[in-house]
Each structure stands twice: as C-alpha cells, then as structure tokens.
Amino acid sequence: MIKLFVTDLDGTLLGMDHYIKNEDIDALKWMIDHGTPLTVASGRMDHEIAEVLKRVGVNGHRVSQNGAFVYDNQGQEIYAETFEGNMAERILTAIEKEPMVKTVSTADQTFTDKHHEWVDIISEQLFHDIIIQPDLKQEIGQTIFPSKITLNGQEADVVHAAKNIKETFGEEIDSFISHETCVDMMPKEINKRNGIRKLIDKLGLKPEEVACVGDSFNDISMFEMTPHSYVMATAHDDVKAKASQVVDHVHEAIEDLEKKGLLNKKEQAADV
C-alpha cells in the first residue's frame, strides 16, 4: 500500500504564474481525506512550499531546496544542511565566467550580486523578492550561509554549465538541471531521494510505500527510490526513462494508484 504521496512543484503541480489545476487540487484533497498523506519535494524554499499548500488548502510534509531542508506536516524540522567551509565560495569562483545569472539561496532568502533582466523573470515565479547584494561573494560564510547555488539562463547555456560543473567538482557536490532554465548546485548527497529518506525514516515507512511524481532531472533521485514513480509527459526523454509511468497531470497519478488499489483507505491509514 502507498502510505505517502510525493509531488514536485514547478512543471508538475505548479504551472506558470503559480497556477494549479482544480482537478489536481480535488485529487490531492480526496487522497488525503482517504488516508494517504502528502509530501511536497521541490527545489523551492520551505516557505514557498508552505504557501502552495496553503493555497491548495491541505497540510503536508515538506522537502525543500532539493532535500536541504525537511519538515514534517506539523512544521517540525527533521533535517537541515548548508555548504561547509569555503565550498560555496569555490563554486562562485568556478562559475564566475558563465554567461548566466547566479543566485545564492539560504534557508529563507535568495541573493544575487547585480540586477539583470533574468532576475525580474525569476522573481515573477518566486513567492519572494531576490535581494541584490553587490558584495555577495565576500559575505559568503559571514552573513550569508548558502544551501543552494543556482545558474539561471537559456536552455543551451544551462546544459553546457551543468556539464562544466560536473567536470569541475565531480562528487564533491550534487548538481542537476532542476528546470530547463536553471542548474542547481547542492552540498554533497543533498537531493530529493535523501531528503525523502530522512522523512520516511522518521515516519517509519519503507521506500516501496512511497509514490512520487515529478518532471525534471532533480526528480530522478526520488524516481529511483520507489517502484511507484510517475513522470510528466512534458519531461525530457532522459527523465522519462527513469520513471515507471508517464502522466499528463498529478491527478492522473493519484487516479492510477487508486485504480490499482494501492491507496490507503481512511479506516486503514497510519497516523503519519
């Protein structure tokens, strides 16, 4: 039986301009009412996930910034991680010449060193403003403690940058394309799979009791942890190859689980 349903946000549950389909909202509420808890796992910050849950009108566990922060549905912190030592500074130095906008995220803020048209584009999709900090690099480790560093730009630049980052840092950090317009760099072993594992360990669940849905490269790690994985039809072919089934909408994944008899009934649900 599925005892936890995990959904990504951007490109999966959340469309452009923060749009969420009514069919997806109804399906999530039905699923929760019938005993299967929800988790949102996203590259976004925790307060942004909380805002989406509020707009949907449901409660849920939260795995934010690709697994850097994990909270249960009561708001209790389960896990938190930021870059150690001078790693963030090393990354910023390595990506300095990339023709893209660099943003640095902490637990609850996003910084960049100068204004650019891409900053306005990114801000439109966030639930908070990006802070312009001209002395960003100098403030790393002093007043700014990064949990995620992101390059934002055109798809071709994103692909090229992702390759360069892998070649430069290898296994020192985790990096992946989280959207066609951005590549995220995370502390080592910080990804959605490991964030979800922190959560299910606390809940006493097994990976095979988890179902998940996503659409991008940063979702592959969670696809690989469970046989019940769904990927959006709009995803890159390499991402689709890692999931068990392709769907067009989140509600289709929930409906498929229900048809297979894998969702908990209310009277059978564990208190998670």
- What is the average per-residue confidence, as pLDDT, rounded to a whole number? 93
Strand % is 15-25%
Helix/strand-derived class?
A: alpha/beta
Helix content: 25-40%
The value of Rg in angstroms is 18 Å
Quaternary state reads: single chain
CATH class of the largest domain: Alpha Beta
**CATH-wise, what's the superfamily of the largest domain?**
HAD superfamily/HAD-like
Query: What strand order characterises the main sheet?
Result: 5-4-3-2-1-12-13-14
CATH topology of the largest domain: Rossmann fold
Largest sheet properties? 8 strands, mixed
CATH architecture of the largest domain: 3-Layer(aba) Sandwich
Describe this structure in words.
By secondary structure, this protein is an alpha/beta fold. The chain has two domains: 4-80 and 191-268, HAD superfamily/HAD-like (Rossmann fold, 3-Layer(aba) Sandwich); 87-187, Hypothetical Protein, Haloacid Dehalogenase-like Hydrolase, Chain: A, domain 2 (2-Layer Sandwich), CATH 3.30.1240.10. It is built from ten helices and 14 strands. It has helices spanning 22-33, 46-56, 87-94, 117-125, 136-139, 155-169, 192-203, 220-223, 237-240, 250-259, and strands at residues 4-7, 38-41, 61-64, 69-71, 77-80, 101-105, 110-112, 130-132, 148-152, 173-179, 182-187, 210-214, 228-232, 245-247. The protein has an eight-stranded mixed beta sheet, with helices on both faces. Strands 8-7-6-9-11-10 form a six-stranded mixed beta sheet, sandwiched between helices. The longest helix is centred in the middle third of the chain and has 15 residues, at 155-169. The radius of gyration is 18 Å and the shape is globular. Residues 267-271 have low confidence and may be disordered.
